[in-house]
Amino acid sequence: MAQEQIRPERSGGGDEEPVDEGTQVAAQNAARDEDVDSVLDEIDGVLESNAEEFVKGFVQKGGQ
């Protein structure tokens, strides 16, 4: 049996401005970079104030 793929037809209005995907991706990357930078700054602040306590939180107990 042959199967046929049915694709919806797009309206050819053409009135819409083409969206520059590169610009959108760049904006998303910039926003993500800012988020990562803020998290790293927060970690730096914690490490400057109490690095020993921060590291102890990751040490496994019982020799595991």
Keyword list:
mainly alpha
Task: Explain this structure.
- It is built from 1 helix and no strands.
- The longest helix has 36 residues, at 21-56.
- By secondary structure, it is mainly alpha-helical.
- The protein is elongated and about 65 Å long.
- It has one helix at 21-56.
- Helices cover 56% and strands 0% of the residues.
- It has a domain at 23-57.
Topology:
Layout: H1 21-56
Radius of gyration: 26 Å
Oligomerization state of this entry?
single chain
Can you tell me the overall shape? elongated
* Helix-strand string: H
Alpha-beta content class: mainly alpha
Number of strands: 0
Most strands sheet: none
Q: Approximately what portion of the residues adopt beta-strand conformation?
A: under 5%
**Poorly predicted regions:** none
First-residue to last-residue Cα separation? 59 Å
Q: Helical stretch count?
A: 1
**How helix-rich are the residues, as a percent range?**
55-70%
Q: Report mean pLDDT, rounded to a whole number.
A: 79
Question: Nutshell version of this structure?
Answer:
The chain has one helix at residues 21-56. It has 64 residues and is mostly helical.
